[in-house]
Amino acid sequence: MGDMKSFKVLIIGGTGAIGGELIRCYQEWSLSSGVPLDLYATCRHRSSSAQSGVTWLTMDLRRPETIFAAVKKLTSLTTMLNHWVCCTGYLHGAFGSPEKALKALESEKILGDFAVNSVGPLMMFQACMSILKAAPLPKAVFLSAQVGSIEDNRSGGWYGYRMSKAALNMGVRCAAVECGRWRHPPAVVVVHPGTTVSRLSEPFTAHRHPAPQTAEQCAEQLFLRIQSLGVQETGTFQRLDGSVIPW
Ligand SMILES: NC(=O)c1ccc[n+]([C@@H]2O[C@H](COP(=O)([O-])OP(=O)(O)OC[C@H]3O[C@@H](n4cnc5c(N)ncnc54)[C@H](OP(=O)(O)O)[C@@H]3O)[C@@H](O)[C@H]2O)c1
Question: So where are the chain's domains?
Fold first, then answer.
């Protein structure tokens, strides 16, 4: 059972490039500040290479029952959560690739994109609401993507990814409005991490010059962004420098 005086953080998708580096940032901050940290993170599969100092929860966003089981375990370990950060996302892989044209659309693939990129993160947040409510200044950050901006879409394509990130953005905006009525209102935001070297971006950025930012660079900025995030920013879609992206 975690100590009530320790700082408590949940990273959803701790095995990802950005999620893994964000874990490291929180651990370094705890070491340098002397603030005890209880760090929880989700993974799809337990791995022997998983970072230490973390309580790992197994969960697959395509399987809603695993979301509730993971949060049940989490709430048996802590009654409070200060920061909640969702670093999961699906763009390409075993379930299909981004669609370049309408003729490539397949409903099952797109429904899967919604499960991972929009519905799953919202269900995860819903399940964590009671422990976030117990924090003095709760913060919840959902990693989305600028390509999920409807206003900013001038090149089209990537239907499933764009649609599911736009749906995530709307869900988070709704949650921010609703949670603004809590006794301690949280900061609930959507963040575009910027193009970053990772498995998710690799097929689309491998030959890009200059190379995109590293996950380490991204996570360091994200960590600072989360630290300085204020309640007045709730319900916004932001870049890592805090500038606002049109929905
Ligand atoms: N990299 C970029 O250039 C870029 C740009 C814009 C937005 N983003 C967003 O930033 C976030 C982090 O991306 P990243 O670059 O760090 O990608 P990444 O390294 O591929 O990490 C993706 C994470 O999502 C998890 N995940 C995928 N499907 C899942 C599922 N069904 N259930 C549970 N977890 C699942 C992965 O778990 P496994 O390890 O088990 O696969 C991994 O932890 C995503 O939301 C992405 O859309 C990234």
Answer: 7-238
Q: Each residue of 212-229: pLDDT tens digit?
A: 999 999 999 999 999 999
Pair 5, 22: CB distance under 8 Å: no
Record: fold of 7-238: Rossmann fold (3.40.50)
Q: Please, where are the H alpha helices in the chain?
A: 17-33, 64-77, 107-114, 120-133, 159-179, 202-205, 215-228
Mean per-residue pLDDT, 29-56: 91
**Residues 226-237: what's their mean pLDDT?**
98
Cβ neighbours of residue 28 under 8 Å, at least 6 residues apart? none
Ligand 1 atom nearest the C-alpha of 197 is 1
Residue whose CB lies within 8 A of the most ligand 1 atoms, among 49, 88, 95, 123, for a mutation test = 88
Residues 224, 110: Cα–Cα separation, whole Å:
33
Q: What is the CA radius of gyration of the chain?
A: 17
Greatest extent of the chain over all pairs of C-alpha atoms, in Å: 56
Give the Cα-Cα-Cα angle 92, 189, 34 (nearest 5 degrees).
100
Question: Do the Cβ atoms of 93 and 141 come closer than 8 Å?
Answer: no
Give distance in angstroms: CA of 107 to centre of ligand 1. 21
